[in-house]
Amino acid sequence: MEASRFCLWSMLVLFTASAVTPAQALRNPSAVYCVTLGYAYETKETALGTVGFCKMTGSATCPAWDFLQGKCGTDHSYCAQKNLQQRSGKGRECEVDNKNAECLLCILPDGSVREVSHLMNLSVVEGVCGDGACVVGENSQNCPRDCPPPRHETACDKQKDGTCDPNCKTGKDPDCATPNAYGNLPYILITLIALCAAFLFLRKRRK
What we know:
single chain; alpha+beta; three-stranded antiparallel β-sheet; 6 helices; 6 strands
């Protein structure tokens, strides 16, 4: 009886953890926007604290949130890439329930406007390792199944270049994120269920 309870509670705890973790794993929208456009996102320490910057083509760089809101770097925006006119928007135009919101609006050929991240269908939900898509938050270090390392990566350069070098030891490459232990939860859960089932089956046969 005690063994049955242990198995049940173990599976319940693991199932709950695996269920709630994705809801907590949200990415920075400004970082997602920057990287999706093919630019480099990096953080810097400033007098205001840690600030994210988007490094665009050439030497153009501006605060990532300002870039997303169309306050700078408009020549490199999604609207510009699609040859769409653009303008700043506020409040409900930003497709959010916040009258103080500020955003970048792309003007479509029919004259209607869309907030840039909604037009791009950007998702800020953290990707799941093993889904076949290499998204922001995943790299060749914490999810090689989705993000295989480039073949030319044979040495650890210890440089912040937007690519995690798999040959670097933990903590040596600033681009390498700490592996997410929750990515293995489904496999742990399946293994635990199988072991509990086998244990209960053998216990019943002995009786």
